[in-house]
């Protein structure tokens, strides 16, 4: 297991040193921004370094369309912060996004051509509105799912060879999986082995703030007086736990709960979203209820999670996609504990397997066996 | 400052002393319904019930009204072991408005010694938010006066018929558990020995505490109602209820009825284990208490 050790250098000094190293070794540097606190801190650090050197840094934002208005404003703020030292790369192209709120409309085509009257907002006049890569060599991870979020990122990165992409990924205080993602493919450059980055074809993804924790990010933002998304303030006031304070897409499997508070946080965004995407009203009303999206309580007429799962598989409206679930579930254990998680994937339309399933023996069964033994 | 194991008079004295020694303009007291408390203070005092902590009508008003001279008193607010629960988050928000706070709790933990960190979070304004008790390197401000009760076991004879019934019911519960909570098994089995215990209680007198009033005995009260030291007729399953009972009644020594059913022995062993866990927590806290 990786462990943290305190050194003599602060995480801020280390991040500045790493970013300077990146500028020393790469002619082109692009920061991926999402409008969240981590990418805000990283982009600010990179912009300051670019300014110090009298050069420019690219700011890349893949616009998912269904995001908070505050996110849009935050990204715009970053891109206009030091216009002489930044290259705005606001990508507003058509791609597919998982819609966890509806089983009949399992995907949303962001910025879909011909539906511009329904778009959450008009495209920016200065954004990149057509795929900047060669469409004949475009890669798609899974043809059945179509051209998705990660495909857009991968193709964008591929059309910038030899460029360092800075990502605000943090591993400190997060899961071991996150740590593994950061360190599994270290970058080899000039005889140096960089553990805070991964090679990606001819380019590299680097994580200069990988050792920052939640508090380091907020400390930096406060001390530097950097503006941040106001959604965090609203979530903080409402008592959101740290892991639920997120500003990403509003409709994917991890974020659907944000729809519950959206009418209160951003009523105009909610009003537009409800017209744009199917299932939003349902998610807003039932997002926190145990029986539906959270799948923590069985519906009344079903006696087990396995029965519920089988019922959903039988009646799923998208027969093409249900095959993905059937094939995946066949490789997993068949018990109540796993079945409940499978139900959750089905209800949230998580055909991409983004919500990990803890494929292990049912802990309830272990507890029942324990009681059988001791009582 | 964290006050552990203080009785009502000591809590009153602690709050009065704090108010007289500091420039406090008003006091806000947070308390759960089971531990309602009234302080006799010269400054305006507002009482906020635990369930109201997270309500908008209180939350946003209190955020506006709590001033740097407001004293926040947290009386027995440790109600769950989830350190990030919404109630604690809201309390931390209230704390951001003032430097004055007093944390009063009877026992340092609910289920494990690390539960004490919930109180430390309140006292230190989350300086040790992601840490465990063993990681805390600074001296804590704790006034520790916890008195743990001793439980004496009283054996109640059990006939063979009841033992047979017990075995049958245990099998039936396990076989039909379905998606129900597995803790139902000991909960239900523990009730079986009630009749033989009721006969003992009717003869011996005294004050007793049990799960419910199914035997309609005047000397038997429930865990929710008990206000004076009582002996244990049967144990409750949840530690919060158990802790509430001990907090309210403050016994130093108590008797517990134990039949020959295995579940009864399991419950008393569990209660003793809980008391040992409290001792461990107190020992760990004493190591970290500063002057």
CATH topology label of the largest domain in chain B: Rossmann fold
Low-confidence stretches of chain B: none
State the share of residues found in helices of chain B, binned by percent.
25-40%
The strand line-up of the biggest sheet of chain A is: 3-2-1-6-10-9
SSE sequence of chain A, one letter per element? HEHEHEEEHEHEEEEHHHHHHHHH
How many strand segments of chain A? Answer: 10
Supply Rg of chain A.
22 Å
Mean pLDDT of chain A: 89
CATH class of the largest domain in chain B, anyone?
A: Alpha Beta
Helical fraction of chain A = 40-55%
The CATH architecture classification of the largest domain in chain B is 3-Layer(aba) Sandwich
Q: Compute the average pLDDT of chain B.
A: 93
- Structural class of the helices, strands and pairings of chain A? alpha/beta
What is the overall number of helices of chain B? 9
Number of domains of chain B: 2
Note down, in words, how this protein is organized:
The complex is a heterodimer of chains A (375) and B (291). Chain A has 375 residues and is of the alpha/beta class. Chain A has helices spanning 11-25, 37-53, 69-81, 149-158, 176-183, 214-224, 230-237, 258-265, 267-276, 280-286, 305-315, 319-330, 336-347, 363-374, and strands spanning 28-32, 57-62, 86-91, 95-98, 107-110, 163-167, 187-189, 192-194, 197-200, 203-206. Chain A has a six-stranded mixed β-sheet, with helices on both faces. Chain A has a two-stranded antiparallel ribbon with strand order 4-5. Chain A has a two-stranded antiparallel ribbon with strand order 7-8. The longest helix of chain A is centred in the first third of the chain and has 17 residues, at 37-53. The mean pLDDT of chain A is 89. Chain B has a six-stranded parallel β-sheet, sandwiched between helices. In chain B, strands 9-8-10 form a three-stranded parallel β-sheet, with no helix packed on it. A two-stranded parallel sheet of chain B has the order 7-11. In chain B, helix 5 (160-175) runs antiparallel to helix 6. The longest helix of chain B has 25 residues, at 262-286. The mean pLDDT of chain B is 93. Classes of the chains: A alpha/beta (375), B alpha/beta (291). At the A-B interface, helix 14 of A face helix 2, helix 3, helix 6 and helix 9 of B.
